[in-house]
Amino acid sequence: MEVIIQSTPAAAAELLVRLIAHDLRANPQLVLGLATGRTMERVYDRLAQMHRECGLSFAGARTFNLDEYVGLPATDPHSYHRYMQEHLFRHVNVDLRNTHLPQGDASDLAAECHRYENLIRKCGGIDLQLLGIGQTGHIGFNEPLSALHSRTRVKALSPVTIAQNSSLFADPSKMPRRAITMGVGTILEARRVLLLATGAGKAEIVAKAVEGPITSMISASALQMHAHCTVIVDEAAAAKLQGQDYYRWIFANEPEWEPYRSAS
Ligand code: F6R
Known about the structure:
Elements lengths: L1 E5 L2 H18 L4 E4 L3 H17 L7 E4 L1 E3 L10 H8 L11 E2 L8 H14 L5 E4 L21 E4 L2 H7 L12 E4 L2 H5 L3 E6 L5 H9 L17 E6 H4 L5 H10 L11
Parallel strand pairs: 1-10, 2-3, 2-6, 3-5, 6-9, 9-10
Antiparallel strand pairs: 4-8, 7-8
The protein binds fructose -6-phosphate (F6R).
The site of fructose -6-phosphate has 14 residues, from helix 2.
């Protein structure tokens, strides 16, 4: 795992965008794993801008989102289907037939989870997985005690996550209590993982996930086992990391990061 500390949330998002753009240009058929949430909004705004102004093409890309709320149809304004339409898909040239999210309103949820896993496999697996991190340390909606080998399945949302996200619902009491989420094991199979966390509110959970023990109580800690995972944080989210000086030294000195230093 590598940790890159950037000065501001905008600089952190910018670095993530540059890494995505690099991989997409190198492999136009990239299989991209997508996250939703407030942190990603800035990333999708910038990707849309790069599409408009610099010709970044999504024409050959295939996308798989991490999760969707159980019970919400794709047309629901609070669904992650709608989030992706609003924040990314309608602003870029992705072929909508190549964009995939779990169907939260499927009549047979177990079959839907199985279908989703198979579809990822059929596309050759995820090349680049984007992640945020929740207050519980979840990635996707892998709440505490998610098995480190878990696959796509229905997960009950924790009270902390319900508190984190219910304000995004017009009527907070209508926020679904369950979601379909890729499992921790599914996420760990992505060839590369990029996690973005910004703001002081994430500092404690980022430190636990990155520097604490690997535990199913904090799903993001499983990323310590991934061979190619980069955690990008702003100063505020980095504040509780013990190894800040070391992480900064690596970013400032290792040749692989040379093309990306100007974003900081
Ligand atoms: C969303 C997702 C979640 C979020 C996390 C952070 O698809 O999988 O894990 O990434 O809850 O959300 P924000 O960015 O709103 O703090």
